[in-house]
């Protein structure tokens, strides 16, 4: 029997997905249904680009709803307080600097579902996160990234 996948995420990430799901079902879905209804009223569906566009949008919307429902069903809420306070785990922010003398960088390691690099949230599946997970404050770590190896020192874990 195949092992069921899980989606590691923080409570904040789960709550964000729940809000997105509610918006899709309560606000977005009725708008798309209305667009389809209006486009149908234009007559011949075989050459009706508005109808095709609305049906495509409906398909993407329903796909996203299904994906979110699946992720929430198999969500694995990460409790970053369950580990040592100086250990890098999912749900914690880690500050490190590339050696010998680069500027410090801070990222919060989150599940792939809530990753947002522009907001400083990186996926636990990313090369940097994989290289940092399980290590501790003040450790020097070699991280394997596509551009080569980088050596970093962990400055803060919170």
Word description of this protein:
The chain is α/β, with parallel strands linked by helices. Strand 6 (140-145) and strand 7 (148-157) form a beta hairpin. Helix 1 runs antiparallel to helix 2. Strands 5-4-3-7-6 form a 5-stranded mixed beta sheet. Strands 1-2 form a two-stranded parallel ribbon. The model has no long low-confidence stretch (mean pLDDT 88). It has helices at residues 11-40, 49-73, 127-132; strands at 7-9, 75-77, 93-98, 105-110, 121-123, 140-145, 148-157. Keywords: DNA-binding, Elongation factor, Protein biosynthesis, Transcription, Transcription regulation. One of its GO terms (molecular function) is translation elongation factor activity. Residues 84-158 form the Transcription elongation factor GreA/GreB C-terminal domain. Residues 8-77 form the Transcription elongation factor GreA/GreB N-terminal domain.
- SSE order: EHHEEEEHEE
Describe the main β-sheet briefly: 5 strands, mixed
Structural class based on helices, strands and sheet pairing: alpha/beta
Q: Report the β-strand fraction as a percent range.
A: 15-25%
Mean pLDDT: 88
Dominant shape? elongated
Uncertain runs are none
User: Care to count the β-strands?
Assistant: 7
Domain Transcription elongation factor GreA/GreB N-terminal: 8-77
Domain Transcription elongation factor GreA/GreB C-terminal: 84-158
Organism: Lentilactobacillus raoultii
GO molecular function, one term: translation elongation factor activity
